[in-house]
C-alpha cells in the first residue's frame, strides 16, 4: 500500500490506513463492529472536523459501507461526519450477486478448487442467511442511498471476478440520478485491485484530475 499512500503524502495529506479482512465480509456483524471502531477514531478530538477523502480498495469498499450503515443507524452519534467526506474513490469495489461473490471468492482465494469453494460459500450463505444475506441486503440498500453525496471516482474492469460490471453500472446510474458527481475509469481487461500496476498512466492521471477537482488544501499533520 506504500505506493498509494505516497500519492497522498506527497500532497501534504495525512493517511489513516484501515485494513479489512475477508472475515469482516463473511460475518457482517464483525464488519459492523469494526466500522464502529473506525468511526470512533474519526470522531477523536484530534481529527474531528477535518475533511476526509476516502480511497477504498476491493473489500475496503464494503468496510466503508459498514461505516455508512452505522452512521445511518445511529445518526446522533456521528453528526456531520457524512458532510466531512469531500470525495471518495473506489478501486475494484466488491459488488454483485451472491453467486458472483461466491465464485469470486473461489477464484481469488483458491483458484485451483474454485467450484468447491463456490458451492461451499453458497451453502454457508444459505445456512446463515439471517447473519449474512440479511446484512448484505441492508448494506446494498445503504450503498445506493449513501448519506455521503460528495464526488466519487470508480476504477473497475469488465473481467474482474469480484466486481460485476453490470451491477457496478447500476449503482453509478442511481447515484447520478441522485445528483452525485460520478467519474469512472473502466478497462476491458485488468486485474482486481491492481489497476495501478496494469494501467499506471491512465490510473494516475485520472486520480490526479479527480483529487485536483476537489481542491483539497494540505493540512498541518496532527497524527
Q: Which class in CATH terms?
A: Alpha Beta
Give the overall shape, derived from the CA principal axes.
globular
CATH topology call: Rossmann fold
| Intertermini distance | 18 Å
Whole-angstrom Rg: 17 Å
Helical residue percent band: 40-55%
Task: Tell me the β content.
Answer: 5-15%
Query: What is the total tally of β strands?
Result: 4
**Oligomeric status:** single chain
Report on this structure.
The protein has a single domain, classed as Rossmann fold, CATH 3.40.50.1820. It contains 11 helices and 4 strands; from the N terminus they run αααβααβαααβαβαα. It has helices spanning 2-9, 22-26, 28-42, 60-73, 81-84, 98-109, 114-127, 133-144, 165-177, 195-198, 200-214; strands at residues 52-57, 85-91, 152-157, 182-187. It has a 4-stranded parallel sheet, with helices on both faces. The protein starts with a helix and ends in a 9-residue tail after the last helix.
Layout of strands and helices, then pairs:
Elements: H1 2-9, H2 22-26, H3 28-42, E1 52-57, H4 60-73, H5 81-84, E2 85-91, H6 98-109, H7 114-127, H8 133-144, E3 152-157, H9 165-177, E4 182-187, H10 195-198, H11 200-214
Parallel strand pairs: 1-2, 2-3, 3-4
Helix pairs in contact: 3-4, 4-8, 6-7
Concise synopsis of the structure shown:
The chain is an alpha/beta fold and 223 residues long.
Amino acid at each position: 500500500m506504500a505506493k498509494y499512500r505516497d500519492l497522498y503524502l506527497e500532497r501534504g495529506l495525512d493517511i489513516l490506513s484501515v485494513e479489512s479482512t475477508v472475515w469482516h465480509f463473511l460475518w457482517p456483524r464483525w464488519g459492523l463492529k469494526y466500522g464502529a471502531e473506525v468511526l470512533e477514531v474519526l470522531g477523536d478530538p484530534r481529527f474531528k472536523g477535518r475533511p476526509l477523502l476516502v480511497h477504498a480498495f476491493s473489500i475496503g469498499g464494503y468496510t466503508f459501507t459498514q461505516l455508512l450503515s452505522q452512521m445511518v443507524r445511529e445518526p446522533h452519534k456521528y453528526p456531520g461526519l457524512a458532510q466531512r467526506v469531500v470525495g471518495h474513490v473506489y478501486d475494484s469495489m466488491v459488488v454483485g450477486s451472491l453467486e458472483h461473490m461466491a465464485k469470486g471468492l473461489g477464484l481469488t482465494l483458491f483458484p485451483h478448487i474454485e467450484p468447491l469453494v463456490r458451492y461451499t460459500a453458497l451453502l454457508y450463505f444459505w445456512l446463515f442467511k439471517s447473519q449474512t444475506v440479511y446484512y448484505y441486503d441492508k448494506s446494498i440498500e445503504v450503498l445506493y442511498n449513501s448519506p455521503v453525496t460528495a464526488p466519487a471516482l470508480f476504477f473497475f474492469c469488465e473481467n474482474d471476478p469480484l466486481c460485476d460490471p453490470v451491477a457496478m453500472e447500476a449503482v453509478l446510474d442511481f447515484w447520478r440520478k441522485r445528483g452525485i458527481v460520478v467519474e469512472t475509469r473502466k478497462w476491458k481487461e485488468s486485474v482486481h485491485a491492481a489497476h495501478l500496476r496494469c494501467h499506471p498512466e491512465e490510473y494516475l492521471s485520472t486520480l490526479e484530475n479527480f483529487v485536483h477537482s476537489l481542491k483539497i488544501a494540505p493540512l498541518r499533520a496532527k497524527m
